[in-house]
Amino acid sequence: MASQALSSHLEALTAKHAGLEARLREEMARPIPDAGTLQALKKQKLRLKEEIARA
Q1: What is the signed CA dihedral for 24, 43, 55, 1, rounded to 10 degrees?
Q2: pLDDT digits (tens, 9 = 90+) for 11-54
């Protein structure tokens, strides 16, 4: 049962990571990307990547 919970948690983290990647691509595609937004998205993405690696 714990294995299922861990798997669901990993799937959720992976989905969030993919969502952040999409938001990063959207922001970078803008004529003038906002540096603060890019930095915040990259930090969130890195935190998720680290959490996925620990799981």
Answers
A1: -60
A2: 999 999 999 999 999 999 999 999 999 999 999 999 999 999 98
Do 36 and 29 form a contact (C-beta atoms < 8 A)? Answer: no
As a whole number of angstroms, the distance between CA 35 and CA 52 comes to: 26
pTM for this model (two decimals): 0.84
Which amino acid belongs to residue 27?
A: E
2: left (phi over 0), alpha (psi -120 to 50) or beta: alpha
Q: Which amino acid is at 53?
A: A
What amino acid occupies position 22? Answer: A
Token digits of residue 54? 């620990």
Number of neighbours of residue 22 by Cβ within 10 angstroms: 11
